[in-house]
Structures are given as C-alpha cells and as structure tokens.
Amino acid sequence: MSALLSLRDVWIEYGEKIVLERVTIDIEEGSFVSIIGPSGAGKSSLLRLILGQEAATRGSILLDGMPLTPECGPDRGVVFQRYSVFPHLSALRNTVFGLECAQSPLLARLFGRARSAAVEEATEMLDAVGLGDSLHLYPAQLSGGMQQRLAIAQALIKRPRILLLDEPFGALDPGIRSDMHRLITRLWRDYSLTIIMVTHDIHEAFNLGTRVLALDKRRHDPHAPHRFGATAVYDLALRKRASDAAGEEAIAAPENGDRHHEEKIGHG
Amino acid sequence: MRWVNRHVSRGDRLLLGAVPILLLVLLYLFLAAQRHAANQFDKILPLPDGMTKAMSGLLFQPDQLTGQLLFWADTLASLERLGIGLGIATLAALLVGLVLGILPPVRATFGPLVTGIAVIPPIALLPILFIALGLGETAKVALIVIGIAPVMVRDIAAHVAALPREQIIKAQTLGASSWQIMIRVALPQAMPRLLHAVRLSLGPAWVFLISAEAIASDIGLGYRIFLVRRYLSMDVIIPYVAWIALLAVVMDLSLTFLSQRLFPWAHGVSH
C-alpha cells in the first residue's frame, strides 16, 4: 500500500502552546478522509499544514514520496467555508483564473484560441457542479450553496492531487447541505479525487468519508492545558469504496441516468 | 411608522434635498436686501444683480493687461494644477499602496516611512517646497501631491492587506505567483477603493490648491479670491466659491458614477 500523503511524527507548536503532537497518518490515493474533533483540537491547523499554509515544527510530510514545501501550490486544492471565490470575477472568470495563471505567467490572461479552449474547459467544469446557467454572475449574485459549488469547480479545474475542504458546508442550511453532499460524492467518484475534509458535523463525516479521523488531546494537564497537543485518537476505516458509494447513491435516487436532476441548486 | 423605516422615493429625495439649500439662498437674499435698504452701496452682502455685473466683466471681457478672459483662465489654471496633482497622487497611491498591502517585506521596509510622511502637516512643508522648487507650478502641484498621496497610499495599503487571507491562499492553490496575485486579485479589488479614496481626497486637494494659489501665484481661482479680498469684492468672491463648490460636486458625482459603472460587483449586486 503506497500512501499518497504521509505525515510522520508531526508536531505543531506556537511558542509555548502545543497544538498537534505525534501525528502520524498515511492517506491513500482515492480516499475520502473526514477529520472531526472538538473546537481547538487542531483540525484546521492540520489542514493548513497539509495545504502548506504553515510549516510543521517537527516531523516530516511527504506527498508522493517527496517532502512537502511549506507553501501552497496547485497540487493541493482547497475550499474554505467562506471567501474562497474572487468577488470581482464572474463565475466563469473565477474558474478560468487557474488556467490563466498556469499558461500566462506575465499577464495572467489568455487571448484568442487559448482563451476559448480555457473557457470551454471552465464551462464544462461549471456544468459538472451545476452552475451551467450562472456563468456570468458575480459571486455576490449567487447563493451560499452556489458559491461553494463555484469554489469547488475553481479548485477542480487544476486537477489537484488532494482536495482539502475546511468545513465547506458549515454555513449552508440543511436542505442545500444534502444537495452538496451528493455533489461532492459524485465529483469524488467521477474525478477519482483524494479528499480531506474538516467538519464539525459528525453525520457528515460518517456519511461522506471512507475514513474518519478524530483529533483530540490524549493527555490533559489541568495546570498547563496548553502543554499537551492533540493527536489522532480514533482512526476508523469505513468499509465504503467508491463503488459502494455509487451503489448507495443509486438506491437513494433511482434515476441515476441524469444526475443533474436530483441535485437541485439552492437559491437560498 | 418609525422614522428609521421611512424610505424616501427618488423624486421626494430631490425635493427634500433642495429645501434647505433654497432656504439658505432665501435667507441670504433677505439679509442682503435688508442691508441694501439701509445702504445701497453695501459691499458685504451683494445682491444677485451686483454679482452678475461683477462676474460678467470677468466672464466675457478680456483683461486689459493680459487679454485673457479671467474667469476661464483662472478655472483652467486651477483645474490643471488640481488634475495633475490628483493624477500623480492617485497613481502613487495605487502603485505604492498595492505593493505595501500585498508584500509583507515591502510593508515592513517602507510602511514606517509612509506613516512618517503622512503625519507631517503638508502646509508646514510649503516653505520647503517653495525654496526647493521655486514659486512656479511645480511647487503648487507638489503641495497637492504631498498633501493627499500619503493618506491615499495608507488607505489602499490597508484595504489590500485586509483582503481575506483565504482569497490569497486560494489563488496560490490555483497556481498564482506573487505577481499574478498582485495584478489579478489585489489590483482589481483595490480599484473601487481607489476611486473612493480620490473622492475623499478632493476636499483636502482643493484646500491645498487654494492655499498654494493664495500664497504665490498670478492666476487661479484661489489667487483671484485672495486678490479681490483687498477690495472687499464679495460680489466676485461669492460666485467664485459657488463655482468651486459646483466643480467639486461634479467631480464627486462623476467618480461615484464611474465606480458604479466600472465595478458593479463592488456596489452591492445581489441575488
């Protein structure tokens, strides 16, 4: 079993305060890992670590066997709870942005044939997340759920090795959230994604994940609570492969032929 | 119905907005008429016909010395100084503010310098400017630039630095370099704020323009006002001040219009 991402004895410390200690995790390609835990248990720190937004104080992180540089890059996509789309660009331009950055280092804009190819690819991606009718709307004109769909499309167009989700559906109302669950499950299967999702919602964690990691402190010193960090206290592999997830979805919604029908887009 | 819930329609807004202005004009006319009844040669509160007579000379008759229509020559000279000053300040605010806001090492290096310059009262620098640059146009434009640019730079830098961290991270995960983040993420989002900063700087810019013209100049709206003050010519001063107010209002409104036209996403488009 070769791991796509492996953390070896990773610690994160901010001065005196220890946030994570002795975290050792291997994440396989194609898995959907949910990370749960109480507030302040370092869920988001772990995500920022994998994202490259911060560096580990100790330990090593390998992606595809190579040490991870502590800087964000296009091999790891991300969707935050909020602010992950650019308010000054329409949905289409938000999605094309990733292609423009790679192909035009100086201007970050494409022209002519390269542009129409990029627009076509972005349109396809937006169709896949159910935003085919909203190409030219600004994010402020989209509902919360649609903004998250856009953030997902924006990330997926770069074909990241890992997609990181930081409480992506936390701000959505329950009906829209279940639509989004179906969407992310379908995208995960269709694009063979590896997903790591931080969530507060324990149902969401078990429904979506093939594996659930619970972070918490193993030890607690009442006189110096900040001196012990959290680590993975539970690591549950759920017997749910991609094919099973597809089967479940087929039972849940019999007309699987046209998947777009079952996912209503919330206009909340 | 509570007053906080009373919304005023567009037509009513125009009407209501005009009422206090009209009242002030009426009050002025009443006081002026009263003074003229007591003394028909009163110079302090001139009546409209007096102002028209005085202004028509400046508007339509060429000056005997220079052959210029003074009112238009003054307006042109002042607007040119103001325009060049505002243009340089705006460009500086955009370039410096953007770089300071988005690149932490640059902010650490030049932030204190910008803050230091911003806290100096610009008028205190006017003697230095006159000594260094002479009494010509350069010193006047430089005063406007030094007066408004630091505040604008700090405003833009703060605005860019306050962009959500998530956006900057997201751009990096989409493969953007520092340069690409600057021109595609920070710059477009700084633009509406820049126009807003220009609008707010119009007032100070006029102050510095009039000050510079009052102290050393031979043409310009501020120069004319301070020149005719010696003859108590309120019949010229009041129309000039009204004209300056009108110019400022037109600039303000056109900047607002421009911002709404160019950056609809920044002006509350919603679903």
Automatic annotation (TrEMBL), chain A:
Transport in keyword set: yes
Keyword terms: ATP-binding, Nucleotide-binding, Transport
GO MF term set: ATP binding; ATP hydrolysis activity
Domain of life: Bacteria
The UniProt record lists the keyword Nucleotide-binding: yes
InterPro entries: AAA+_ATPase, ABC_SmlMolc_Importer, ABC_transporter-like_ATP-bd, ABC_transporter-like_CS, P-loop_NTPase
Pfam families in the cross-refs: ABC_tran
SUPFAM superfamilies noted in UniProt: P-loop containing nucleoside triphosphate hydrolases
Annotated ranges, domain ABC transporter: 5-242
Designated name of the protein: ABC transporter ATP-binding protein
Organism of this sequence: Sphingobium fuliginis (strain ATCC 27551)
Automatic annotation (TrEMBL), chain B:
Record keywords, A-Z: Cell membrane, Membrane, Transmembrane, Transmembrane helix, Transport
Topology within the bilayer: Multi-pass membrane protein
Span of domain ABC transmembrane type-1: 79-259
PROSITE patterns in the cross-refs: ABC_TM1 (PS50928)
Domain of life of the source: Bacteria
Keyword Lyase part of the UniProt annotation: no
Transmembrane segments: 82-103, 110-135, 141-163, 197-217, 237-258
Keyword Transmembrane helix: yes
InterPro entries: MetI-like, MetI-like_sf
Gene3D superfamilies given in the database record: MetI-like
Pfam families, per database record: BPD_transp_1 (PF00528)
Subcellular location: Cell membrane
Family: Belongs to the binding-protein-dependent transport system permease family.
UniProt cross-references to PANTHER family, sorted A to Z: ABC TRANSPORTER PERMEASE PROTEIN MJ0413-RELATED, ALKANE SULFONATE ABC TRANSPORTER-RELATED, MEMBRANE SUBUNIT
Designated name of the protein: ABC transporter permease
